[in-house]
Amino acid sequence: MAGRQLCKIKSRGHVSGVCAGLSEYFGVDVSIIRLIWVLAIFFGVGSPVIIYFIMAIILPEYDPDSVYFEEYVDDDDEYDDRDRY
């Protein structure tokens, strides 16, 4: 997966976009990432708040020209170019 980069996406984030960036990078729903983060805070797994703020400072912001995210392409298209000829 060349060109894939972990970054924060402020336009989709509530605080700084770290969870939104993680969800795009790992290909899961952002709600699942947020739920895991909140559970980690309540159960005291490591230092999630400190890790979050470090990631918010270190991670670059999303730049659509330099970051590659796989997009869903509907191959079941009604119009197929092969049928035209």
Automatic annotation (TrEMBL):
The keyword Protease does not apply. It comes from the Bacteria. Its main location: membrane. The keyword Aminoacyl-tRNA synthetase does not apply. It is found in: Cell membrane. Residues 5-61 form the Phage shock protein PspC N-terminal domain. This is PspC domain-containing protein. It comes from Fusibacter ferrireducens.
